[in-house]
Amino acid sequence: MSIDVARRYWDSLFQSMEGERSARSSAWLNRHLKALARTGNRLVDLGCGTGDDVRVLAREGFWTVGLDFSWNALTFARDMFPRGRYVQADLRARRLPFGDATFDAVIARCALHYFTLKETERVFDEVARILVPGGAFAFVVNSSKMLVKRMRYEYKTHKIVEPRTIRFADGVVRHFFTRPELAKLLRDDFEVEYEHEGVFRQYEEQRIAWVIRARKKGTPPKRSRADRSDAV
Fold first, then answer.
1. Would you say 217 and 186 are in contact if contact means Cβ atoms under 8 Å apart?
2. Which of 7, 56, 96, 185 places its Cα 20 to 30 Å from the Cα of 115?
C-alpha cells in the first residue's frame, strides 16, 4: 500500500466521523489503568485516531501524547480535546519521533494490524526503544479467527500479501494474528502479563481480537510519578 493510498483512506474515514464516542470505545482500558501507571504517567497512544483514549487517559491523570498518520484524525482530536498533545507520524517509519525511554507506557488500540510482518516487527522494536524498563505496552489487534469466520471485511476481492496478511478492495493491508506470532514478537523485549482473545467492540463494530498487555524487561527507573519530561 503506497503512502498516498493510506493517507487517502484514513483521512477520508476520519473526515466522516462525528461526535465523541470515548465512553464506549475506551472501555477496554479500565482493566489496565493501574498497570499502565506502575512506572509513571507518561504515555503515548500509537494510532490514536480521534483521540478517544487520549482524552480518557488524560482524565485519569496520565500525561498523554497521541500519534497518528491522519491529519484529519488529529484535527478531530484537537477539536474534542484542545489540551491534548498530538504528533503526526507514520508508524511504518524507521524511527518514531521520540527519544529512548521517553514513555512509561504505550497503548495501541486496533492500530498495529495494518502492516506486513516485517513492518510490525519494526514497530514493536520501536515500542521497546521508547519505553522505560518496566514500562507497560497494551494493545488490541485482529485475531486470525476473523479469517476463519470471514468476519467484518469484504473477502470477494482481496490479495494475500503474506500468510494472514491481506490487501482488501479498499487498498488497505491488514494482518490477522495468531498467539504464537504475538509471543514471538514480544519475547525478546517483553514479558506478557495479560492476554485475551475474544469479541471486541470498536465503536459500533465487532471483531475478534487479541487484547495484550506486556511489560518491558528490565528494572524500572527510580523516580516519582509526578516527574515529567517534554516528550515532543
1. no
2. 56
* 3-state percent breakdown (helix, strand, coil) of the chain, nearest 5: 30, 30, 40
The answer on pLDDT for 8 being more than 70 is no
Maximum Cα–Cα distance across the chain: 54
Report yes or no: 47 and 68 within 8 Å, Cβ to Cβ: yes
**Which run of H or E residues covers position 136?**
strand 131-142
Task: Write the pLDDT tens digit of every residue in 89-99.
Answer: 999 888 999 99
Only one residue has cell 506470532, namely 181
Cβ proximity of 101 and 131 under 8 Å: yes
Residues 116-140 pLDDT 10s: 999 999 999 999 999 999 999 999 9
Look at the chain and report how many structural domains it folds into. 1
Pairing of strands 173-175, 165-168: antiparallel
pTM of the model: 0.89
The position carrying cell 498530538 is 86
* Residue 201 belongs to a domain: yes
CB 49 within 8 A of CB 13: no
CATH code for the domain in which residue 7 is found: 3.40.50.150
Phi (first) and psi of residue 53, to 5 degrees: -70, -35
Is residue 19 over pLDDT 70?
A: no
Asked if residue 48 belongs to a domain, the reply is yes
